[in-house]
Amino acid sequence: MSDWSGFDRRGAPPPIFVPAYLPPEALAGVRTRRVFALILDLVLVSILSFALWVVLAVLTFGLSLLLLPPLFPLVAFFYNGLTISSWRMATPGMQAMDLEMRLVDGQRTPFLNAAVHAVLFYFSTMFLPIFLVSFFAEGKRCLHDILAGVIVIRRPI
Predict the structure, then answer these.
(1) Do 124 and 130 meet the contact criterion of CB atoms below 8 Å apart?
(2) DSSP code at position 28
């Protein structure tokens, strides 16, 4: 029998808090893969932000260079929100690392949860010790995962 994650859990009781009942292979290597996925996604968001900056500068004849707010946070917000809430349930970097993000009950992550997760993640990068929570939390979840109500797992094969 296969559950929402695609991993086989024969004889397991119905999940109350899903991360407690995930099989070990669903979380194997998730932390390392998330770091590499983050690097890929940061490169992609930087490229998208720069391209948007150039397009806006050309369209406004350079006037937007004086008035433009920082584009990176805005692009990252929509990049994470739209890609994680899509049918693939992952950013391109996460897809490359065979990861996907779901709500803790196994449902697809809605746009708002995915976008809030991104905001919390970028906020938590200012306080790096916060990432140590993943070493102690159930399901290898970071603090921003817990606050957004999501879990990152390996994509089932």
Answers:
(1) yes
(2) T
Lookup result for tokens 């979380």: 27
Backbone φ/ψ region at 98: left (φ over 0), alpha (ψ -120 to 50), beta: left
What's the distance, Cα to Cα, between the start and end of the chain in Å? 15
Residues 111, 141: Cα–Cα separation, whole Å: 19
Query: Rounded mean pLDDT of 13-41?
Result: 76
Threshold 0.85, pTM exceeds? no
In 3D space, the residue among 9, 5, 8 whose CA is nearest the CA of residue 103 turns out to be 5
CA 16 – CA 56 distance, rounded (Å)? 49
Q: How long a stretch of residues is the chain?
A: 157
At residue 18 the predicted structure's pLDDT band, cuts being 50, 70 and 90, is: very low
Host H or E run for residue 101: strand 99-103
pLDDT in tens, 84-132: 999 999 999 999 999 999 888 888 999 999 999 999 998 888 888 888 8
- When computed from its CA atoms, the radius of gyration of the chain, rounded to whole angstroms, is 18
How many Cα neighbours within 13 Å face the side chain of 113? Answer: 20
Calpha distance 93→52 (Å, rounded): 20
| Residues with Cβ within 8 Å of residue 93, at least 6 apart in sequence | 36, 37, 38, 39, 40, 41, 44
